[in-house]
Fold each of these.
Amino acid sequence: MNLSRSTFPIKSSIVRLLFFAFAFCLAISLPVFASETGDTSASQGHPHDAMQAKLATDSASQLSTLAEQHQEEPTEKGPPLGTLDFLMSSKYLAWFGMMVVGVVLLLLNGINRWVRLGMILVAFVLFGLDYIFMVHPSPMCGVTKLFTFWFTRGTAVPIFLAIFLAIFVTSLLGRKLFCGWVCPLGAFQELFNKIPFKPRWKQFNFGMFNAVRFALLAMFFLTFFDIKSYLTYFAQDIGNVPPDLLTAYSAYSVYDPINYFELLHWGGSDVRWWIMMIILIIASLALYRPFCYSICPIGAISWLLEKIAPGHVRIDRKLCNDCQICVIKSPCPTIKPLLEGKDFTLPDCTSCGECINTCSRKAITFGFRR
């Protein structure tokens, strides 16, 4: 079948490079994945249970990890896992691999609608189905639970610290590389946003959405310090605290009732799960990544880091003729304010790169120049 450049505007050399990039990612992550799942006799059903049980149980032994992990005790307890151990596990290597592939495609202008669709579908399958790699501890835990344990016990739980570093160190290099190329919930929203649907609001009031997002983040910190003494008591005597009482006090977090990462546990059948899922799908059809723009604490913090990240989409003013084609064809609300020079109030740029090939004058590029 003969595909013209207008149908699939990507050079064959880029296709080959993408293939080798995926092969590289698999080469570095599969041996680790195999070693993590090698002892199949220790678990049945889920092929990743043995390693994930070790990760969950190890974190619990360090500081009582989340009840949301619910893993079985491993047959043999090894030494406690550190932050580097988590960062070198197959899940995190796959995270980094996806981000590397994304950056390579961005630098080579190798992204169009179909390439982008394929990449977010891969991200969702790998990290959002809770089968190949566990969803939890979720990215949101990398902010909320890390902060909670740090201030109640004075210790950073390695599994949460690893999530935090993997997300925000890479965000310091390129704008929202994790959010745009790895996050399963972001990929889920974007997949639905690609379905033709009307009405659709691409240029919404970002300032209002961002204010809500930062208000939630502020409420999280304020409510935490208000009951910090109670949480500290529980953390010191965690083994003797009744689970129901601990659950009641853990619900202080404003994020717990609206943690949409919980939807990625696909066994949910209660009314609350269905209501939240329907709301998210409808909102994603009409808006670009609504959870990310209005709720997610990672989105809020990484929006601040966008201002200093050297890797980002840029406009060559000498080549741009202000035709607005990129505004029409790009799925996100970011390119229009970027053209207008509103850098400080710019909506989240997830470095998806779909705007780059919409410009026939090559005025839009991604790079690491300051």
Amino acid sequence: MKTLPGSTLSFTRQQISDGFGPADWFPGDHPAMPDIVAHGKRPDARACGLCHYPNGKGRQENAGVSGLPVSYFIQQMNDFRDGLRKSAEPRKANTNVMIAIAKAMTPEEIKASAEYFGAMKWTPWVRVVESSTVPKVESRGGIWIPVEGGEKEPIGVRIVETPENPERTEILRDPRSGFIAYAPVGSIKKGETLVKTGGNKKTVECGMCHGSDLQGLGPVPGIAGPLAQLSRAADVRHAGESAPRRVGRADDASRREAHRRGLRQHRRVRVVARRQQEGQPPQ
């Protein structure tokens, strides 16, 4: 049997990773889970709490879902179901798992899970460390785990995210044990410039859609904290709204058209957010 500091419960390895009833180490940390979150629905809808944890924090290989606007959550699940949300990397297995789960869930189950996770506020989960070197890592189940021996290597232009405590994340699925994101020196300042100025007006500043505090605006989700938004941004840029494409350098015409599409979408989002704040239905 396995135990965790701070928890009075114990589980076997099989119980911890049970796709249709995973371990809930800290039941007091969250509201009562809907059955679809706690147990899923056989054969295709795994329990949401398995990968995203009962507190909605998620793990490196998926995403955090706590605090998402209910309407946004429902839209994303419908997009998975209808083939409108895919990964820019076709080999990314968990995206295909989400597509299968979305197709297996009823609208009522999607709404229940959206309201459950949406009721929980997002809190910090990833600690960012700027460094010129990073631990050597290997992939285990979609999570980057430092190799034995503590070897390091130059970070280059990468962001390398790894668990604060690999055993508690990889083996025990501890919903209180977060992650470290190693980033090249100067990344935070560059990110601040992009967020606040749109990269000196190369694009629109992030706060125009996601709110000045980046915690979300109306139906638009917050982007402060969860690094999984990086992969989502790549998918939006490269996969578009239909079949995924391999990531590559677009020609100038394609970049200009992508920019125009982004501006049109930005305007639509702002209109919807404003109307929701005014208590009016979106058009």
